[in-house]
């Protein structure tokens, strides 16, 4: 990318265009979904990612979902490798492969420009039902994830633009509400819109120009973040919070302990001394924890 000269005006154009695209994706999803969880509560996030699964932009809508798509995108990339094609649509909700909770179902579409994978469009939304023992997915009596909902590891709903009807039928035969099918279609539509818009943007300026300015955005963002971290005095900081009663064991008490280590331009969040997980209804996933940490940290710097 060394032959591409960085243009600061064009850099701003790319940055604002990414945001405009994810905003438009959110508007599309809001106007086409049926569930009030999505169209009124806006319990969803839309985003754009590069070919390696690094975030270009997102429109959060619900803050806790802010950083919940990137980890899943990288799982998909690692899983499928070169078996990713134009027209693919991938669905995912599995908490054991970087999902944040079962009801938050993600849709991903790869974006190709001149037969080159340049990025991903994605939308994740809270579905009104996703199977499991009780309608709605919130089951305080559950002692394991299989009792809560249908697990959907990354699987293609569409391949090369063709619906995999058997996969579709398998998933939605295990979901009570037919409305969820329409909401998933709305998420696919939002991702298709993002795919078209990013493809159009890259076609206008060229892949090399896009890649160079994308990397400059990453570099400048990292530089800014490291500068903010450096303003915090070096040291080790501690915090804790307690959860009382997990729904299973009367009198139970759990402690979340955070050790935050600041060293020059780096910061580490260590939760290794927290209470172990329980078979009650209060555990958190890796992705939801990271999302909460990142969101809180960004509000502080």
pLDDT below 50 for ≥5 consecutive residues: which ranges? Answer: none
Query: SSE order, as H and E?
Result: HHEEHEEEEEHHHEEEH
Number of structural domains? 2
Strand order of the largest sheet: 2-1-5-4-3-6-7
End-to-end Cα distance: 31 Å
Gyration radius from CA atoms, angstroms: 20 Å
Assign a percent range to the helix content. Answer: 25-40%
User: What is the overall silhouette?
Assistant: flat
Give a summary of the structure in a few sentences.
The chain has 301 residues and is of the alpha+beta class. It is 38% helix and 23% strand.
SSE inventory with pairings:
Layout: H1 8-32, H2 36-39, E1 44-50, E2 55-59, H3 70-80, E3 89-92, E4 104-113, E5 116-126, E6 155-159, E7 162-163, H4 165-172, H5 179-205, H6 207-230, E8 235-244, E9 253-263, E10 266-270, H7 286-300
Antiparallel strand pairs: 1-2, 1-5, 3-4, 3-6, 4-5, 6-7, 8-9, 9-10
Describe the structure.
The protein is an alpha+beta fold. The protein contains 7 helices and 10 strands. The mean pLDDT is 95.
């Amino acid at each position: 990318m060394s032959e591409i000269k960085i243009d600061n005006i064009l850099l701003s154009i790319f940055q604002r265009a990414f945001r405009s695209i994810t905003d438009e994706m959110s508007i599309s999803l809001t106007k086409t979904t049926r569930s009030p969880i999505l169209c009124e509560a806006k319990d969803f996030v839309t985003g754009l990612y590069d070919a390696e699964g690094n975030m270009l932009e997102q429109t959060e809508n619900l803050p806790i979902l802010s950083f919940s798509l990137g980890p899943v995108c990288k799982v998909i990339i690692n899983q499928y490798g070169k078996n990713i094609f134009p027209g693919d649509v991938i669905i995912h909700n599995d908490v054991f492969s970087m999902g944040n909770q079962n009801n938050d179902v993600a849709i991903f579409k790869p974006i190709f420009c001149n037969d080159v994978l340049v990025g991903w469009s994605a939308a994740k939304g809270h579905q009104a039902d996703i199977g499991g023992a009780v309608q709605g997915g919130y089951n305080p009596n559950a002692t394991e994830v299989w009792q809560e909902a249908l697990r959907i590891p990354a699987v293609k709903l569409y391949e090369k633009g063709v619906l995999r009807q058997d996969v579709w039928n398998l998933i939605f035969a295990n979901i009570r509400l037919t409305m969820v099918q329409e909401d998933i279609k709305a998420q696919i539509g939002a991702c298709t819109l993002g795919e078209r818009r990013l493809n159009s943007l890259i076609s206008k300026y060229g892949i090399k120009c896009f890649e160079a300015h994308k990397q400059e955005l990453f570099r400048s963002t990292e530089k800014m973040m490291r500068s903010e971290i450096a303003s915090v005095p070096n040291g080790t900081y501690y915090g804790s919070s307690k959860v009382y009663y997990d729904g299973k064991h009367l009198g139970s008490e759990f402690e979340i302990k955070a050790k935050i280590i600041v060293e020059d331009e780096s910061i580490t969040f260590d939760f290794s001394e927290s209470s172990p997980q329980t078979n009650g209804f209060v555990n958190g996933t890796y992705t939801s924890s990271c999302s909460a940490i990142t969101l809180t940290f960004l509000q502080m710097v």
